[in-house]
Amino acid sequence: MRGEATVLHADLDAFYASVEQRDAPALRGRPVIVGGGVVLAASYEAKARGVRTAMGGRQARELCPDAVVVPPRMDAYSAASKDVFAIFRDTTPLVEGLSIDEAFLEVGGLRRIAGSPEQIAARLRERVRTEVGLAISVGVARTKFLAKVASAVSKPDGLLVVEPAREEEFLLPLPVERLWGVGAVTAEKLHRYGIRTVGELAELEAATAERMLGKATGAHVHALARLRDPRPVDTTRRRGSIGSQRALGIGPRSAEELDLILTRIVDRLARRLRDGDRVCRTVVLRLRFGDYSKATRSRSLRSSTDRTAVLLTMARALLAAAQPEITARGITLIGISLSHLDRVESVQPELPIDWGDEARLDTVLDTLRDRYGAASVARAAQLGRDEGWSSPILPEHE
Question: Which residues are marked as site: Substrate discrimination (predicted)?
Answer without folding.
Answer: 16
